[in-house]
Structures are given as C-alpha cells and as structure tokens.
Write a sequence for this structure.
C-alpha cells in the first residue's frame, strides 16, 4: 500500500512539474508577443551583473542580491514580531478583561480598515521623528502591525476551534491558565492554523515591496534604481518577480514540511 502511495505521489509531482513548465512557457510566449507588438528589444544579457559577478577577484554580489538581503531581514523580523503581536492580540480578544478586549478591538479595526501604504507613511513620517526610529525599523514595525492584525484572527480561530473537553481535562489536572495554553491548547491549535499562517507569511513577503516608498533599499527599491539607469524595465521586473516567487515558494514548501511533521506528531499511528 505504501509503495502504491509513493508511486502515486511521484506521478502527481511529475504532473505538477509539467503544469508549471507549461504555465511558464505560456507566460513567456505572452510576454514575447506583447513586447514584440510595442517594438521592445529584450536585453537579458545585461541582467546577470545586477545579480552577481564571478571573476578573478571572486564572487561579488550585485545590487539585486543586496536588496534581497534587506528584504529577507525585513520579512524575517517583521514575521517574528507579527506572530508575537498576533498571539498577544488573540489572547486579549479571548480575555475576560473588558479593557484587554477593547484595546485589541481598536487595534484590529484601525489596522484592518486602513491601507498598508498609509500606515507606512504614518509610522515613518509622523511617529518616526517622535520615536527616533529609522527607515528599516519603521518598515518592520509597519509590516508587523499590519500582518499581526490578520494573524491574530487566525490564531484566535484556531484556539476557539479546540473542543471544550480539552480545557476541562486541563483544569481537572490542575493546570493553570498559562499552562493550559502552553501545553494543551496552543500545540493543538498550531496544527490547524499553520496553513492560513503560511498564506499570511507569503502576503508579508509580497507586501514588503511597499517599503520602497520610504526609500528602504530593499529588492524593489534596487530594481527601481536599476531601471532608472538602464531602462531595462521588463527584464528587471521579471527578474524581481522570479526572486519573490522563489522566496514565497520556499516559504510555502518549508511550511508544508512543518505541517506534515505536526500532523504526524499528532497521529503517531499513521507513521
């Protein structure tokens, strides 16, 4: 039975690979036809030096790799802070304290009902001089506040989905509220919320492109500079899209492995 499932999985992977290749080919054909119609001449041979160069002096990262490094730092710090904010806000929403619920509600409604771009400008141009924070910190704070609001609802949904019997069992064992959350509720909720959390993490990576509006030299900002100097608009934006795609696919793949591991830990009989 296991051999059959492995064969079936390999067939599915091959089929998915074929679909991806066909999809890429279709997009490439459309791009070529569209640019041919406007008389655009591709100059892909000029792109590699903006990514990296390898010569007698060794490997030298290009501006796009430097921008990618900044993007990774912003996304990593923003995701960690967003997860922390989301967890705290979810617990506030479930709290018996009216003040905690009110604070969480104001935060959620303020963030979810205003554009991220406006929030970035407000944090950098209004709060930045008051709090003495630089562009990088403003970018991380804006992204974490924005994504944290949505993550909090995902976490809250996962917590309330746990059956009441789990709470009763924990209290019967004499566990405190904190121990109940840490040892019983959150581990079970994690298995349920990982897929939507992955989607939110991917959203954070894509939303990070907006921080270029406050002159953070991330991947998008570097691309805009190169385009202004070389006029290689299509080549650079397609390259940037590919780099973002690699980031998000890698993130989704990692989350998928984690989800499978968590599921196996919760179902040892399936091993």
């Amino acid at each position: 039975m296991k051999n059959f499932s492995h064969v079936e999985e390999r067939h599915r992977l091959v089929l998915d690979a074929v679909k991806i290749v066909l999809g890429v080919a279709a997009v490439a054909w459309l791009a070529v036809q569209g640019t041919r119609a406007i008389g655009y001449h591709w100059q892909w041979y000029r792109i590699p030096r903006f990514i990296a160069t390898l010569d007698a002096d060794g490997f030298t990262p290009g501006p796009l790799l430097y921008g990618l490094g900044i993007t990774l730092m912003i996304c990593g710090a923003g995701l960690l802070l967003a997860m922390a904010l989301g967890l705290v806000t979810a617990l506030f929403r479930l709290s018996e304290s009216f003040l905690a619920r009110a604070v969480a509600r104001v935060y959620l409604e303020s963030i979810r009902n205003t554009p991220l771009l406006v929030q970035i400008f407000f944090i950098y141009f209004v709060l930045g001089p008051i709090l003495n924070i630089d562009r990088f910190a403003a970018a991380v704070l804006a992204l974490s506040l924005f994504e944290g609001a949505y993550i909090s609802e995902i976490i809250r949904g996962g917590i309330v989905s746990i059956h009441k019997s789990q709470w009763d069992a924990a209290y019967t064992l004499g566990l405190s509220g904190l121990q109940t959350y840490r040892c019983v509720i959150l581990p079970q909720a994690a298995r349920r919320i990982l897929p939507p959390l992955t989607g939110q993490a991917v959203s954070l990576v894509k939303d990070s492109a907006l921080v270029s509006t406050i002159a953070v030299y991330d991947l998008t900002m570097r691309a805009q500079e190169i385009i202004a100097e070389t006029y290689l608009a299509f080549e650079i934006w397609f390259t940037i899209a590919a780099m973002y795609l690699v980031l998000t696919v890698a993130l989704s793949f990692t989350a998928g492995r984690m989800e499978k591991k968590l599921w196996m830990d919760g179902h040892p009989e399936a091993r």
User: Anything to note?
Assistant: The chain has two domains: 2-42, 62-270. The two ends are 13 Å apart (CA to CA). The chain has a mean pLDDT of 88.
